Amino acid sequence: MKYKTIRELFTIIFMVTLLGVYPYINVRAKVTLIVKGYVKDPNGNPIQGARIFLHDYSFITEEFFIRLPNGKYYVETNENGFFEFSVEDIYARYQVYVAHVSAEGELDYVPVVLDIHMYEHVSLVELNVTLYPSASVIVNGSIVYIGGNWRGYIKCSVYDTEGRPYSEILNAGNAIITYEGGTLNVKPKLISTYDNTLWRNFEKAIEYEILPKNAIFERLVLVPANYDFLLVVYTRVVDVKRYPKPYVVDITIPIGNRESPYKLSTQSPPLIVDITPWSIKNAIKLVESDIAVTRKELDEMETYGFFIAREREELSRAEALVEEASNIPVTGENVELIIDKLERAYVIAREYLVLRMNFMRTVAIEGASLLPVFLSIFAVTLAFYFFEDNKRKMLSYPLFYLGLILVFILVYPGFHLVERTLFLESVIASLLGVLVLIFILPRHIKEPDIPGKIQRRSLIAITFSVAKRYSKTRKTRTLITVFSLAALIWAFTVLASISTVYGIRLDEILKSSKAEGILIKHLNASTGEYLWLSYYSDYRWFLLTGKISKISPRIYTRPIDVEKEWFTIENSEGRKVKLYALLGLSSNEEYFSKISTCLISGDFNKINDTYAIIIPSSISRSLGIGVGDTVKLVLSGAIPVKYELKVVGILSEDAFDDLKDIDGESLRPLIEIDNELVHVNSTDMVILNWNFMRQELEGISEIASIALSVKSDVDPISLAREYIERKGTGYIAWIALKDKCFKAYVGEYTENIFEQNIAFIVPILIVSVNVIVTMYSIVHERRREIFIFNAIGFNPTQIAMLFLAESIVYGLLGGGIGYISGLATFRVIAYLSKHPIPIPMLIGGQPLMVRPKLEWFWSIIMIAIAIMVSMISSFKPAINAAFMYSPTKVKRLKIEEKEREKREEVYLKAYTGKRVGLPGKIGEAEAILFFSFLYTRLKDLTTGYVERAKDIEELEEEEYPDGRRVKRFKFKYIFRTDEREIMTDNEIIITKLPQNDYYTVELSTNPLGGERIPIKYMDRVASVIRDIVRDWEEERKRLGIR
User: Fold this and answer.
1) 522 and 381 in contact (C-beta within 8 Å)?
2) 2: how many CB neighbours lie within 10 A of its CB?
3) 695: nearest Cα among 153, 51, 88
4) Across residues 163-186, what is the average pLDDT?
5) 535: which residues sit within 8 A by CB, 6+ positions away?
6) Which of 388, 565, 352 is nearest to 469 (CA)?
7) Which of 118, 171, 649, 850 maximizes the CB count within 10 A of its CB?
8) Which residues of 821-840 are buried (b: 16+ CB within 10 A; e: fewer)?
9) 343-392 pLDDT per residue, tens
10) Phi-psi map region of 364: left, alpha, beta (phi>0 left; psi -120 to 50 alpha)
């Protein structure tokens, strides 16, 4: 009972407290704001008909202007200039505007505004306003900013000759504000600053029928009549090129000066000023400064030893474009031509050339750490060429290498950019690597010694040693040949312009949609993120070309973090659904994506209505709304903004998810989830009118892409290339034709002299002829040696290899010398271009317009070219030498096969045997099984009639002092012919070397008793044993042996 009493007591206290507070809550809701006062001219005369209206920019009332008790959105002053009105104050943010409309429907006085939003619980505003007669200034033109986007923002401020705003100079009256905290005197302000927000407010006033149509419009500035004034235009652009991230740049344009200010009377016609000429002059200065920055960077590159004649030529082309733009009169029809030249100049100076310089720096740093490998190989080549003794080779190699490194440091461009520690590590690693590979490893790792075979390494070493000695016996001839090859490689290095450059690329790609047209996007080159497009410099540019038949911009809201931000759509009953992205389209989108097929109901063409909306079917079901219903779109924030929109279509989410753009991507906007950008679900977005989003949601939306189609007489590829040439890196154009699709963008490609002409083939032919003549003379001189080679058993291939090896020696020497001298030449030319000498014939009247080959792989390519030219030129002389004393012609007779075999048995006979190496390796673990398999198969051959084996003998495995283990099988093989039996004595030798874990198989077959027998019978025995060894491969698989 006690507990119940206490609970009842607390309940009574709570109800009493609530009843005490409730009246105060209602009192706040019922507070009435009274605004009254007088409007007069500067002479104190009352102004009749002045209009006073109240703007709520908190959007709490959901109306832009407050409806007053008279049923209108404004009140007018009477003949005494007096006005009064009252409204129910719900603590909104108010601005009181005072303006006067002339009989012609124009604002003939400068408007005045009073802010009262900063005071709480205002109950009375006593306002006395002074209006000053006005004159009109119209600001025309647009902002030209190369390398950035102007969003159309503009602010105009009116100052006196001392630079003071007229809102602070001219007394616009006074106001007494009574609020909860007391009374305060406040000064209303003469409007002397006009911007997009203010013009939008006045446009809304016209929409609310507060002001007549055309009373005021965007770019109209009202200035005090009969006062000297200066006008300053402020604007801002987003620079997307000169900074790592888009950067807002403020621009100030002064109009008029203190010595000659403007002064207008009420009767003066509107003063029209055009900001375009000033903007273009500023753009020219900006591009000139960009070119100056690039020139400074090129000078710095030249001090590092880079040869940049081609880059300077391209910079001169950019300067010429700026000069041409400066000389064109700034008139309406010439503005686009001027912008075109400036944009092209900027792209050349600050994109193509900067990319090229970055590439050169990167390649130089990379090459400086890799080219020591080439130098070490060339150094060991020189050591092997000049010395025979291995000790001398080993001692001379580091000396040659050190000399080449010193030359490299002096001549390689960009060496000063290289990290010293990395370079030192590369030098030491290259020195030691080649030393170990060439001099140390061969002593410890030997080639398998197969009985009856010459080691391949020994054969190569002997061949090159003999070839080297031949080249050293004729020093003059060798010098001429090496010099000619070095001259070829020098010319190829210095004169042939084959290098990576940057420019327009046009790649054919797979067509992923049926649409035809051009798709434009601006993406981050490294991350692929959207960098957005501009309404003025992108969308309007295409329209102004006059080449477009249809154009469809796509506007996205900027990606938001779905855990922190969202939009809301609500029905008339207040039910709400969250949205995470908005998509703005026009009815032209139907031409490119057939988006109407994604609608369950409604008409997509109605999206052209400003306040139209297309909602997903899931939202339609959730809110119970359909086509024709009205919904509210709410933008979240400190002050929520609401828009009333009409549903014109219901979207199928599945169909829209499957819809693909020209580039194969989805049309859905992007959102941020876990710091990653992904396409929003179709259930979490709506489609709006693109112009509504551009104008009303300018702060949170951007043009993501533009789809367009061209007129029938316009080449879409040419238009896309023209656009990319102007815009530069990051801008991509997809060109979808009937059966093909291309992608145009700025990228790297290889500039090749052979694409322009084939004149460079001439020096290659000259050097080739020189080498051919040299090799023919060598063959002629060495006929005696060739005869001796044949006599001691050299086969034609080995003889030919001697001459080819000599040509390879020439190629190695000529290629290395030519490439190093080519790099040195670039350094000399770079020095002479900075320090001209009065001997122009040394470098010619015109600098070489080529690009240096800085990539490390050019060293390999140059050596390869020298060797190939030398070897190809030596091929025919080497063949002639190989068969100079060898029978090479076989007379082909048309005879029957039986007769051919009979003749072969008669003429192709031998007394000696032959050794045949058999393919495959027998693992040590499987050797016992293989021996058994081999013995069994030989036993199977003993039952034959035409061919058979006999006297099969398996010997014990022998182990020699050097570690070799040898297993032998002996047998005789008998062939029965019509005349007699032919018998061979055979031995299968299975050898395991100590360093190997496998056996090799070899067959020795000989005529029995030294009898002269046809060779084909020995070949037949070899074929039979070879088949047995191959069958073992199948048998081991069956047994599961790996």
Assistant:
1) no
2) 6
3) 153
4) 90
5) 151, 152, 553, 694, 703
6) 388
7) 649
8) bbbbbbbbbbeebeeeeeee
9) 999 999 998 899 888 888 888 787 777 778 888 888 887 888 788 777 88
10) alpha
Dihedral of CA atoms 691, 697, 701, 703 in degrees, nearest 10, equals: 20
Distance CA 129, CA 53 (A): 13
Is the pTM higher than 0.85? The answer reads no
**Cα separation of 867 and 816, whole Å?**
11
Structure tokens at 925: 């673990």
Q: Whole-angstrom Cα distance, residue 350 to residue 234?
A: 27
Instruction: Kindly tell me if the per-residue pLDDT of 881 is higher than 90.
Output: no
Region for 256 from its dihedrals, namely left if φ exceeds 0, alpha if ψ lies in -120 to 50, beta otherwise: left
Cα–Cα dist 895/107, whole Å: 117
In this predicted structure, the answer to whether residue 18 has a pLDDT above a threshold of 50 is: no
Among the listed residues 115, 103, 110, 123, the one whose alpha carbon sits nearest the alpha carbon of residue 39: 110
Q: What is the pLDDT of residues 299-329, one digit of tens each?
A: 888 888 787 878 888 999 999 999 999 999 9
DSSP summary character for residue 165: B
Asked if 686 contacts 549 with a C-beta cutoff of 8 angstroms, the reply is no
Superfamily of domain 27-274: Immunoglobulins (2.60.40.10)
CA angle 306, 312, 316 (to 5 degrees): 170
Secondary structure letter of residue 681 according to DSSP: P
Q: How confident is the model at residue 118 (pLDDT cuts 50, 70, 90)?
A: low
Q: Best-predicted range by mean pLDDT among 95-109, 305-319, 743-757, 782-796?
A: 95-109
Structure tokens at 1002: 């070899």
Please report where in the chains the tokens 């406040």 appear, as a residue.
186
For the chain, the structural domain boundaries read 27-274, 505-751, 897-1039
Instruction: Give 727-744 pLDDT, tens digit per residue.
Output: 988 899 999 998 899 999
Question: For the chain, what is the largest distance between any 2 Cα atoms, rounded to a whole number of angstroms?
Answer: 150
Q: Return the amino acid letter for 769.
A: V
Distance of alpha carbon 119 from alpha carbon 126, whole angstroms: 14
Distance of CA 521 to the CA centre of its chain: 13
Q: What does the alpha-carbon distance between residue 365 and residue 360 come to, in Å, rounded to a whole number? A: 9
Amino acid at 883: F
Distance CA 93, CA 54 (A): 10
d(C-alpha 718, C-alpha 159), whole Å:
49
Rounded distance between C-alpha atoms, residue 116 and residue 99, angstroms: 17
Cα–Cα distance, 934 to 535 (Å, whole number):
85
CATH class, domain 897-1039, is: alpha beta
DSSP state string for 127-156: EEEE--BEEEEEEE-----TTEEE-S--EE
Separation CA 624–CA 615 (nearest Å): 12
Can you tell me the distance from the alpha carbon of 55 to that of 65, in angstroms, rounded to the nearest whole number? 4
CA-to-CA distance for 254 and 260, rounded, in angstroms? Answer: 13
Written as six digits, the tokens of 521 are: 């996007």
Residue 46 contacts by C-beta under 8 Å, 6 or more apart in sequence? 38, 39, 40, 77, 79, 80, 81, 82
Q: What's the distance, CA 346 to chain centroid?
A: 19
Q: Of 484, 461, 373, 397, whose CA–CA distance to 810 is shortest? A: 484
- A 10 A CB-CB count for 334 gives 13
> β-strands 641-651, 612-616: how paired?
parallel
Give the DSSP H or E segment for 179.
strand 173-179
The dihedral built from the CA positions of residue 838, 839, 844 and 850, taken in this order, carries a sign that is negative
User: Is pLDDT at 923 greater than 80 in this prediction?
Assistant: yes
The Cα–Cα gap between 468 and 189 comes to 98
Give 743-789 as a 3 state SS string: EEEEEEEEECHHHCCCCCHHHHHHHHHHHHHHHHHHHHHCHHHHHHH
Q: Any idea which residue has 């600050």 for tokens? A: 350
Amino acid letter, 796: P
Q: What is the pLDDT of residue 621?
A: 93
530-540 pLDDT per residue, tens: 888 989 889 99
